[in-house]
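queue> pop job 88
queue> type: inverse folding (structure -> sequence)
queue> payload:
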């Protein structure tokens, strides 16, 4: 099983911050999120998860772990998109990797540092 470890810096706009995690390339999977090591929101599909207010998030780290299973017989490409604040400028962050074989899985471990 492959692992993709990524770190992104995100410059916070004023106001509330939300997160949506999208698994691309016709693959399937699920995610969970932690803010400074404490679980926030549901496990599985993450859509418009309220992370917090920008003023409270500066200097903190959001960790998102996503498992992706390659079920698309036409492609071994996998990707995960992290959408902060509904695609605000700089708010779309992508991680990608190709698995070696059909039905392989990949774990994405992503840290988003709030600036």
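queue> result:
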């Amino acid at each position: 099983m492959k692992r993709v470890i990524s770190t992104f810096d995100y410059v916070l706009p004023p106001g509330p911050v939300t997160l949506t995690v999208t698994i691309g390339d016709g693959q399937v999977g699920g995610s969970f999120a932690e803010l400074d090591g404490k679980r926030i929101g549901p496990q599985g599909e993450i859509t418009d998860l309220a992370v917090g207010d920008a003023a409270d998030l500066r200097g903190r780290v959001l960790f998102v772990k996503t498992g992706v299973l390659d079920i698309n017989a036409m492609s071994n490409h996998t990707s995960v998109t992290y959408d902060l604040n509904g695609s605000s400028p700089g708010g779309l962050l992508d991680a990608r990797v190709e698995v070696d074989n059909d039905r392989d899985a990949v774990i994405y471990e992503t840290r988003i540092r709030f600036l």
